[in-house]
């Protein structure tokens, strides 16, 4: 007679066989052109290995891989890269990518994980509070927690003939992986530009919120992100808190922060983009980047044709140039013109009538 343990082991083995058979029989053309990527990884996988037996972790990683690959088949995804704890999946349609992400997060929570694994802080069960009419607690975290990043863009496809597999190159791949690293365990972060274009009525039940703009590693410009969660797991958002747009770390409850440019910043991390001085007062924004007044005018203000200093106040436009009012004078006698004076151009510089006649030998 089979014991309960051996029956469970048989079921796990059969599940793996079935998933492998499904994977081998599942064929999809690799996406091309404008592609949507989802990067996913298990949060703190090294800690999970340290706090559980190897067999328990191996079984958990296999089950996680099964969930990812089944969803990839069902939502017409293409497996680009796979490691023990991470995947990169490509989709031709961004809607499929978002629904894939919501489905995988739900499946991870609904899966029955081993008790040894669930005793680990990074996999522990967390229940929804008894609110909103629920008579029994609802799970919002259970098992390994997945970080997910989603972004879309044009990429170059590279077909590897030896393996028969398509690879991808381009900044969007790195951007997606950067968004994934920024996400917390159990969180889906989506590039705001992708989110705005989605048909919201075709997305599985969800909740969302804008979380701000962040500086991703390797990118100069900030990337605006939206958090999207399955509606059934909406209470997760309360666990994620506020992230600093500069250091990408949690802002703790007792730490001060600045809300600016649609994002949140540690008070000592909201700095001038040019000189890195902390911005405690007035600042000026250009291209979604904050500048102190001095650097903004130094690097962005028009320059006076005469003295070449930045113009920070009133100015005169003349002779296809910009001038400080005090610098727009006759180049010979250095007198400022009055409203009744005529200004003449010689060698792209201003002259009063008398001086112009002198320098041009009396020819007007």
From TrEMBL:
Alphabetical GO biological process terms: cyclic nucleotide biosynthetic process; intracellular signal transduction
**Alphabetized InterPro entries for the sequence:** A/G_cyclase, Nucleotide_cyclase, PINCH-1-4-like, Znf_LIM
Q: Which PROSITE patterns match?
A: LIM_DOMAIN_2
Q: Which SUPFAM superfamilies match?
A: Glucocorticoid receptor-like (DNA-binding domain), Nucleotide cyclase
- Which GO MF term does the entry hold, naming one? lyase activity
Q: Which residues form a coiled coil?
A: none
Pfam families linked to this entry: Guanylate_cyc (PF00211), LIM (PF00412)
Q: Which residues form the LIM zinc-binding domain?
A: 242-302, 303-362
**This protein is called what?**
Transforming growth factor beta-1-induced transcript 1 protein-like isoform X2
Q: Taxonomy-wise, where does this protein's organism fall, top ranks first?
A: Eukaryota, Metazoa, Chordata, Cephalochordata, Leptocardii
């Amino acid at each position: 007679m089979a014991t309960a343990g051996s029956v469970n082991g048989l079921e796990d083995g059969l599940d793996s066989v079935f998933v492998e058979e499904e994977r081998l029989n599942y064929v999809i053309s690799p996406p091309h052109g404008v592609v949507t990527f989802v990067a996913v990884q298990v949060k703190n996988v090294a800690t999970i290995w340290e706090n559980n037996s190897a067999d328990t972790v191996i079984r958990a990683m296999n089950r996680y891989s099964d969930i990812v690959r089944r969803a990839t088949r069902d939502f017409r995804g293409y497996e680009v890269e796979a490691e023990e704890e991470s995947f990169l999946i490509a989709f031709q349609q961004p809607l499929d990518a978002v629904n894939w992400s919501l489905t995988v997060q739900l499946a991870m929570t609904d899966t029955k994980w081993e008790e040894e694994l669930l005793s680990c802080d990074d996999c522990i069960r967390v229940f929804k509070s008894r609110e909103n009419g629920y008579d029994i607690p609802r799970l919002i975290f259970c098992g390994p927690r997945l970080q997910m990043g989603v972004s879309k863009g044009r990429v170059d496809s590279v077909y590897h003939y030896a393996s028969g597999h398509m690879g991808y190159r381009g900044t969007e791949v790195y951007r997606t992986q950067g968004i994934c690293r920024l996400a917390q365990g159990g969180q889906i972060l989506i590039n705001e530009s992708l989110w705005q274009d989605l048909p919201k009525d075709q997305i599985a039940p969800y909740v969302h919120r804008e979380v701000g703009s962040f500086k991703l590693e390797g990118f100069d410009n900030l990337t605006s992100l939206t958090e999207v969660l399955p509606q059934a797991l909406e209470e997760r958002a309360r666990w994620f808190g506020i992230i600093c747009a500069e250091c990408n770390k949690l802002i703790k409850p007792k730490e001060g922060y600045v809300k600016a440019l649609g994002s949140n910043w540690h008070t000592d991390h909201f700095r001038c983009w040019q000189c890195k001085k902390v911005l405690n007062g007035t600042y000026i924004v250009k291209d979604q980047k904050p500048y102190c007044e001095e650097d903004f005018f130094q690097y962005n203000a028009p320059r006076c044709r005469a003295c070449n200093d930045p113009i920070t106040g009133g100015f005169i436009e003349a002779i296809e140039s910009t001038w400080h009012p005090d610098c727009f004078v006759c180049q010979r006698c250095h007198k400022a013109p009055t409203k009744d004076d005529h200004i003449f151009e010689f060698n792209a510089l201003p002259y009063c009538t008398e001086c112009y006649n002198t320098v041009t030998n009396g020819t007007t």
